[in-house]
Write a structure and sequence with these properties.
single chain; 109 residues; alpha/beta; Rossmann fold; two-stranded parallel sheet; 6 helices; 4 strands; 40% helix; globular
């Protein structure tokens, strides 16, 4: 997903805070600082910005030319979470087997 996003220009990732992840998923596999480092270490991400559970305010502030999300999010959900403030919404297909919840469950075994 990051490789495809980089084809559109400089990549900023909006990343759920630790509290946001815990509220949404009920667990925290890795702290924000580690998740941020992992993203920056790919060399594909220019910056990472934190939000709690709703990125609308950040998207409204940034007004990106492109808002790229995975197909696990409906277009309606993307619009309701700030997509109205983006130039174009691009939904990339889900990659089978790449899911943070699944990876977390595997790590517990």
């Amino acid at each position: 997903m990051l490789e495809k996003a980089a084809e559109y220009g400089s990549v900023t990732v909006l990343l759920n805070s630790d509290g946001g992840v815990y509220k949404l998923k009920g667990y925290l596999a890795e702290p924000y600082t580690q998740r941020k480092k992992n993203l920056l270490d790919t060399g594909l991400v220019k910056r990472v910005m934190s939000f709690f559970t709703d990125p609308t305010a950040l998207i409204q502030h940034l007004r990106p030319a492109y808002l790229i999300a995975g197909s696990d999010h409906s277009k309606e959900a993307i619009l309701n979470k700030g997509g109205l403030y983006a130039g174009e919404i691009i939904v990339l297909p889900y990659t089978e087997g790449i899911c943070s919840t699944d990876l977390y469950k595997e790590s517990l075994k």
